[in-house]
Amino acid sequence: MRLLRLFLVVVLVLALLAVVLSAVAPTTLTLSRKIFIQAPLDTVWNYVSTLRAMDLWSPWNALDTTMKKNYYGTDGSVGASMHWVGNKQAGEGRQTITAIEPRHRIDVHVQFLKPFSSEANSYIQVDDSGAGTEVTWGFTSITPRPFNIIYIFMDMEKLIGQDFEKGLRRLKELTEPKHVSAPS
């Protein structure tokens, strides 16, 4: 009886702790990264305006070089999507173009299906700065309670931010004059 009571107290304390942590943890994660590229806006736009072009500099391709990808719709237009299936690290998911402001911004809804279910809204914005192009890559993800507790224990800003920085550096390598070749 004493052991059962102790077990119930431990379960109650853990449940209460989860409720408190969930109440104080954020439910929304928003982050963005920027890079300056010494290339004309149109050159950079060609590498961010379609799902296939984005795939050329995606930091997540390295997770599974044999990842299967299928494209649907007219790439570079609202509604176009790409479904991927990869190994345990790359997982499975779909990204769909939700909005485009030509030569300025593309918005993409990302659905992660495996290894966990999650959604995010991502965007890439390009701005002419005279001497080149400033690129901003950002996203927002809403995580329902109690799953938002993960934000207390994992620095998602750092983890995802590093991937964004890696991707933007690759985009810069592909688009600056010494490396430029148009995406196919």
Describe the protein's architecture and organization:
- This protein is an alpha+beta fold and 184 residues long.
- The chain has a single domain, classed as START domain (Alpha-D-Glucose-1,6-Bisphosphate, Chain A, domain 4, 2-Layer Sandwich).
- 33% of the residues lie in helices and 33% in strands.
- The protein has 5 helices and 7 strands; from the N terminus they run αβααββββββαα.
- It has helices at 2-24, 41-48, 51-55, 150-153, 156-175, and strands at residues 28-37, 68-72, 81-85, 92-101, 105-114, 118-128, 133-142.
- A 7-stranded antiparallel β-sheet has the order 1-7-6-5-4-3-2.
- β2 (68-72) and β3 form a beta hairpin.
- It is elongated, with a radius of gyration of 20 Å.
- The termini are far apart.
Describe the secondary-structure layout.
Layout: H1 2-24, E1 28-37, H2 41-48, H3 51-55, E2 68-72, E3 81-85, E4 92-101, E5 105-114, E6 118-128, E7 133-142, H4 150-153, H5 156-175
Antiparallel strand pairs: 1-7, 2-3, 3-4, 4-5, 5-6, 6-7
Quick overview of this protein structure:
The chain is α+β, with helices and mostly antiparallel strands and 184 residues long. The chain is built from five helices and seven strands; from the N terminus they run H-E-H-H-E-E-E-E-E-E-H-H. The chain has one domain: START domain (Alpha-D-Glucose-1,6-Bisphosphate, Chain A, domain 4), CATH 3.30.530.20.
